Protein backbone atom coordinates (compact mmCIF):
# COMPACT_ATOMS: atom_id res chain seq x y z
CA UNK A 1 0.00 0.00 0.00
CA UNK A 2 2.00 2.97 -1.28
CA UNK A 3 -0.65 5.40 0.03
CA UNK A 4 0.80 5.00 3.54
CA UNK A 5 4.25 6.15 2.46
CA UNK A 6 2.68 9.07 0.57
CA UNK A 7 0.74 10.17 3.66
CA UNK A 8 3.81 9.76 5.87
CA UNK A 9 5.72 12.09 3.55
CA UNK A 10 2.86 14.62 3.55
CA UNK A 11 2.70 14.54 7.35
CA UNK A 12 6.46 15.03 7.56
CA UNK A 13 6.26 18.18 5.42
CA UNK A 14 3.18 19.43 7.30
CA UNK A 15 4.95 19.00 10.65
CA UNK A 16 8.01 20.90 9.36
CA UNK A 17 5.73 23.77 8.30
CA UNK A 18 3.89 23.71 11.64
CA UNK A 19 7.19 23.83 13.56
CA UNK A 20 8.37 26.76 11.42
CA UNK A 21 5.13 28.59 12.27
CA UNK A 22 5.41 27.64 16.00
CA UNK A 23 2.05 25.92 15.77
CA UNK A 24 1.23 23.36 18.46
CA UNK A 25 -1.05 21.30 16.21
CA UNK A 26 -2.29 20.70 12.68
CA UNK A 27 -6.07 20.64 12.39
CA UNK A 28 -6.63 20.14 8.66
CA UNK A 29 -4.63 18.77 5.76
CA UNK A 30 -6.17 19.48 2.37
CA UNK A 31 -5.37 17.10 -0.46
CA UNK A 32 -6.25 17.32 -4.14
CA UNK A 33 -6.08 14.08 -6.09
CA UNK A 34 -5.72 14.36 -9.84
CA UNK A 35 -8.30 12.62 -11.96
CA UNK A 36 -5.64 10.40 -13.55
CA UNK A 37 -3.96 9.41 -10.29
CA UNK A 38 -3.37 5.79 -9.38
CA UNK A 39 -3.92 6.66 -5.72
CA UNK A 40 -7.08 5.33 -4.10
CA UNK A 41 -8.97 8.06 -2.21
CA UNK A 42 -10.28 5.51 0.29
CA UNK A 43 -6.80 4.08 0.87
CA UNK A 44 -5.28 7.54 1.33
CA UNK A 45 -7.96 8.44 3.89
CA UNK A 46 -7.39 5.17 5.77
CA UNK A 47 -3.61 5.65 5.69
CA UNK A 48 -4.07 9.16 7.10
CA UNK A 49 -6.08 7.81 10.04
CA UNK A 50 -3.23 5.43 10.89
CA UNK A 51 -0.21 7.66 10.15
CA UNK A 52 -1.45 10.79 11.95
CA UNK A 53 -1.28 9.11 15.38
CA UNK A 54 1.59 10.47 17.47
CA UNK A 55 2.09 13.51 15.22
CA UNK A 56 1.04 17.16 15.41
CA UNK A 57 -1.85 16.07 13.18
CA UNK A 58 -3.12 13.44 15.62
CA UNK A 59 -6.54 15.10 15.84
CA UNK A 60 -6.53 16.51 12.32
CA UNK A 61 -8.91 15.73 9.50
CA UNK A 62 -7.89 15.13 5.92
CA UNK A 63 -10.05 17.03 3.49
CA UNK A 64 -9.51 15.41 0.11
CA UNK A 65 -11.13 16.13 -3.19
CA UNK A 66 -10.59 15.19 -6.79
CA UNK A 67 -9.02 17.81 -9.03
CA UNK A 68 -9.89 17.85 -12.70
CA UNK A 69 -7.19 17.89 -15.37
CA UNK A 70 -8.26 21.31 -16.63
CA UNK A 71 -8.23 22.95 -13.22
CA UNK A 72 -5.70 25.77 -13.33
CA UNK A 73 -4.67 28.62 -11.08
CA UNK A 74 -5.37 32.17 -12.14
CA UNK A 75 -2.88 35.00 -11.64
CA UNK A 76 -4.27 35.72 -8.16
CA UNK A 77 -3.52 32.20 -6.90
CA UNK A 78 -7.14 31.07 -6.95
CA UNK A 79 -8.15 27.76 -8.42
CA UNK A 80 -11.21 27.30 -10.57
CA UNK A 81 -12.97 26.00 -7.45
CA UNK A 82 -12.29 29.24 -5.58
CA UNK A 83 -9.80 27.78 -3.10
CA UNK A 84 -7.02 30.24 -2.53
CA UNK A 85 -3.72 28.38 -2.70
CA UNK A 86 -1.72 31.33 -1.36
CA UNK A 87 -3.92 31.62 1.74
CA UNK A 88 -4.35 27.90 2.36
CA UNK A 89 -1.40 27.44 4.72
CA UNK A 90 -1.63 29.08 8.12
CA UNK A 91 -0.76 28.17 11.69
CA UNK A 92 -3.28 25.35 11.89
CA UNK A 93 -3.63 24.18 8.30
CA UNK A 94 -1.33 22.59 5.80
CA UNK A 95 -2.29 22.61 2.15
CA UNK A 96 -0.25 20.31 -0.03
Q: Summarize the biggest pleated sheet.
A: 3 strands, parallel
Distinct helical segment count: 2
How many strand units? 3
Q: How far do the termini sit from each other? A: 20 Å
Shape descriptor reads globular
Strand percentage: 15-25%
Care to describe what's here?
The radius of gyration is 14 Å and the shape is globular. The longest helix has 19 residues, at 2-20. It has helices at 2-20, 41-51, and strands at 28-34, 61-67, 93-95. By secondary structure, it is of the alpha/beta class. It has a single domain, classed as hypothetical protein PF0899 fold. Helix 1 (2-20) crosses helix 2. Strands 2-1-3 form a three-stranded parallel sheet.
Key descriptive features of the protein:
globular; hypothetical protein PF0899 fold; 18% strand; three-stranded parallel sheet; single chain; 96 residues; alpha/beta
Question: What is the secondary structure topology, with strand pairs?
Answer:
Elements: H1 2-20, E1 28-34, H2 41-51, E2 61-67, E3 93-95
Parallel strand pairs: 1-2, 1-3
Helix pairs in contact: 1-2
Short structural summary:
The protein is α/β, with parallel strands linked by helices and 96 residues long. The chain is built from two helices and three strands.
Amino acid sequence: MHELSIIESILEVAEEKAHEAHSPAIRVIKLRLGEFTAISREAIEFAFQVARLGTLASSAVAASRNAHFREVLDAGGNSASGISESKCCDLNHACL
